[in-house]
Amino acid sequence: MSARRTIARAIMRRLRRDRRGAVLVEMAFTVPLLVLLGFGGIEIANLVLVHTRVSQIALGAADNASRIATGDSLSQPIIREIDINEVFSGVEKQARNMDFERRGRVILSSLERNTDGGQWIHWQRCYGDLGVQSSFGAAGDGATGNAFPGMGPTGKEVTAAAGTAVMFVEVYYDYQPLLYGKWLGSQRIHTTAAFNVREARDLREGFNPTPTGTVASCT
Predict the structure, then answer these.
(1) DSSP track, 18-63
(2) Confidence (pTM)
(3) For the chain, is the Cβ count within 10 Å smaller at the N or the C terminus?
């Protein structure tokens, strides 16, 4: 009996000193957490990347819209519908692999001064099937008077100077999470950009000479 007790005690002492089982238990708890954190980092990085791409789309569209114009030395340049459609073609190229036409929308507004000196959304054009409208006004808002403050967040509105226009762009995009869609759901990204037109323009609306372009309506 004494020998058996001695052997049993020796085995118990060895088991108390053996940490291999504890390591396995710790790994069973920590590995899933590390995997979760790793995939979460990938999700956050992808979301930041998409935010950056959407911001670049807004800046590119506003910049391109501020430059487009067609004319000659005898008249002020005009904006044609086909020129506006070229801006949206640029958006389509920038948004490659984002399924943007289905999940996004670009709203291009021409912000100008009305005859009373107030701010006025002269026209709007849109690209993308996402069912949203401008957060800052519709075409025709501010046509008379001085009540319309401009476009942008309250207190930070963008305004147009007399005799010129601002190309104001809003971009909406429904982000679909890579891995945590059931938990995060769809995230709607919204960003804006604005550029003054680069040269004097004939600001009248409705130029659609040959070759004609489809009017990219927002309705």
Answers:
(1) --HHHHHHHHHHHHHHHHHHHHHHHHHHHHHHHHHHHHHHHHHHHH
(2) 0.81
(3) N
Per-residue burial over 173-211, b if 16 or more Cβ lie within 10 Å, else e, is bbbeeeeeeeeeeeeebebbbbbebeeebebeeeeeeee
At 56-107, the pLDDT tens digits run 999 999 999 999 877 665 577 888 899 999 999 999 999 999 999 999 999 9
Direct distance between the N- and C-terminal alpha carbons of the chain, in angstroms, rounded to an integer: 94
In this structure, what token pair is assigned to residue 174? Answer: 């429904």
Cα distance between residue 188 and residue 165, in whole Å:
29
In 3-state terms, what secondary structure has residue 124? strand
Q: How far apart are CA 152 and CA 136, in angstroms?
A: 6
Question: Which two tokens mark 74?
Answer: 């005898």
Rounded distance, CA 106 to CA 170, Å? 6
Q: Provide the pairing of β-strand 166-175 with 104-113.
A: antiparallel
Q: Which residues does 86 contact at the CB level (< 8 Å), separation at least 6?
A: 64, 68
Output DSSP code: residue 173. Answer: E
SS3 125: strand
Question: What is the rounded distance in angstroms from the CA atom of residue 64 to the CA atom of residue 170?
Answer: 14
Residues listed for the chain: 219
Cα within 13 Å of Cα(44), Cβ side = 6
